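Please check this.
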Amino acid sequence: MELIMATQNKNKVKEINALLPASIQVKTLEEIGCLEEIPETQETLEGNAFQKAQFVADKYGVNCFADDTGLEIDALKGEPGVYSARYAGPKKNADDNMNLVLNKLEGVADRKARFRTVIALIIDGVETVFEGIAEGEITKEKSGQEGFGYDPIFRPTGYAETFSELTMKEKNEISHRGRAVKKLVEHLSKLQEKS
């Protein structure tokens, strides 16, 4: 089975391919010649995920999926949420985004947060949605070299390390994206059994 992931983010594709069985091949947008910016104008993670998947499915006639992920911080009333990638501006700079979060949380005791990933899958016109959540907290400073995005300031519940200090394998076992992808894989495996 071949699927296109509606993202230009090679880190996401690498992370997802590490979770998928060999019978499911994920290709990037670049590999199908899609180099344009895909619209993300919805107010929810679900809305954005479906918007991206639908855009690619309609324009290229392929089976595909898209994810949208948000960091939701309790003390910031759920921010940055759907605006996580561009929280500090349209450049989508991870360091700027993390610095803004750390500045806003300066002196704040409640640092509870969660990462939420929504995956929208479109196969032969049929839409399915999967969700994964990782609970944790925002650290007071950046720590670690692995991962991407907000990983250096997010410490998952039950761990002393941030997502950035875990290996990709360790992170995938407990991460929001890992959990959503596991649901996606179960679904795809069932579809493969039927065909």
Q: What stands out?
A: The helical segments are 10-17, 45-60, 94-104, 168-174, 176-194. Residues 148 and 164 are 7 Å apart (CA to CA). The longest helix spans residues 176-194. The radius of gyration is 17 Å.
